[in-house]
Design goal:
Keywords: Coiled coil. It comes from Leishmania utingensis. This is HAD domain in Swiss Army Knife RNA repair protein. There is one protein chain. The chain has 325 residues and is α/β, with parallel strands linked by helices. It folds into two domains: 193 residues, Rossmann fold (3-Layer(aba) Sandwich); 85 residues. 60% of the residues lie in helices and 6% in strands. It is built from nine helices and five strands, in the order E-H-E-H-E-H-H-E-E-H-H-H-H-H. Strands 3-2-1-4-5 form a five-stranded parallel β-sheet. Helix 2 links the parallel strand 2 and strand 3. Helix 1 packs across helix 2. The longest helix has 72 residues. The termini are far apart.
């Protein structure tokens, strides 16, 4: 990999929305409309950076997680600023594997987490886009947010704070323009980007991230393996239960068939003296002679049962015909 020096004259802007382009009144919980006035201020800032061709906007706002809201933002900016603002397509990651240790906002852990995570996400984006956006890792970037991100040392000189209930103003643009003048030149950015590409500290950070991810995957694999073993154990138990139930059902069906057969023999024997005599004779026989006689009796009784079933069906059909006629 190498750094394309022609990319180093650009800028990257990390953009929050609520409190920047969408003023949030005090004592409310967000919502409301994007501000045309604030968008015009952003347009002016983009122009000061060299125009939309020289600027990449990276969404750091929670809006980045909602495609419909990103579409709403791009549509509104195009309506209010035309081609003066680039389309927002980039976004910071949702959280980072490695979390910075910080001491600010010790009495407000919720705010501490919000600020820390946003800053970590910005720097993670910088470090994962070295070749695509060398200008950023080279220092030609800044973030616009209504949270005070500059309590974090790494953000100083790269941060524009806006007032939540007002949003971006012309005065903020003036402040940003003054900050821009102190950012590295394209040549200095190129040198920084080239150094970052070979920085052993950044490579070690990637190694640590992969170690953490590997550890998480190993835990997930161990959990999945245990769950699979448990499921397989349950399958064995359920298979045994199924086998027993199938055997019980088969035995029950055999018992019912035997009961139906015995009942049929009893009923038909009352109507057919020859059958009654054969049954009585069978009780006096043993061995093969008994088996042969029982088989003949069963065949005869089965024929009688089939005939009875057929007669019943014929009567039912005849009844239907009479009903129709």
């Amino acid at each position: 990999m190498s750094i394309d020096v022609s990319l180093c004259d650009r800028y990257v802007v990390f953009l929050d929305i609520d409190g920047v382009l969408l003023p949030v009144p005090k004592f409310t919980f967000g919502g409301g409309d994007l501000s045309g006035r604030c968008v015009q201020c952003l347009k002016r800032l983009v122009a000061a950076l060299g125009g939309r061709e020289k600027v990449t906007i990276v969404l750091s706002s929670t809006w980045r997680n909602h495609p419909a809201m990103v579409n709403r933002l791009n549509t509104f900016m195009q309506k209010e600023a035309g081609d003066g603002i680039p389309i927002v397509a980039e976004r910071t990651p949702n959280g980072t594997v490695l979390v910075s240790s910080v001491t600010y906002y010790a009495d407000d852990l919720s705010e501490q987490r919000l600020v820390r995570d946003r800053v970590d996400e910005v720097f993670r984006w910088l470090r994962t886009h070295i070749t695509e956006h060398p200008e950023a890792i080279g220092g030609r970037w800044f973030a616009i947010d209504d949270m005070k991100l500059d309590v974090e040392e790494r953000m100083r000189g790269h941060f524009l704070h806006t007032q939540t209930d007002v949003g971006m103003t012309d005065a903020d643009v003036d402040t940003a323009c003054a900050m821009i003048s102190s950012l590295p030149s394209p040549e200095a950015a190129y040198a920084e980007a080239a150094a970052a590409l070979a920085d052993p500290a950044l490579k070690q950070e990637e190694i640590e991230i992969h170690k953490v991810l590997q550890s998480r995957l190993e835990v997930q694999l161990a959990t999945a393996t245990a769950q699979l073993a448990e499921a397989q154990g349950k399958i064995v138990v359920l298979s045994a239960e199924k086998k027993n139930l199938v055997n019980e059902l088969a035995e029950m069906q055999r018992s019912m068939e035997d009961m139906r057969y015995r009942l049929a023999v009893y009923n038909f024997a009352k109507r057919y003296p020859s059958l009654a005599a054969a049954v009585e004779l069978s009780d006096t026989k043993t061995g093969a002679e008994r088996r042969d006689l029982d088989a003949a009796i069963r065949t005869f009784v089965k024929l009688l049962m089939d005939r009875k079933k057929l007669q019943k069906k014929m009567r039912s059909e005849a009844k239907k015909v009479r009903h129709v006629s």
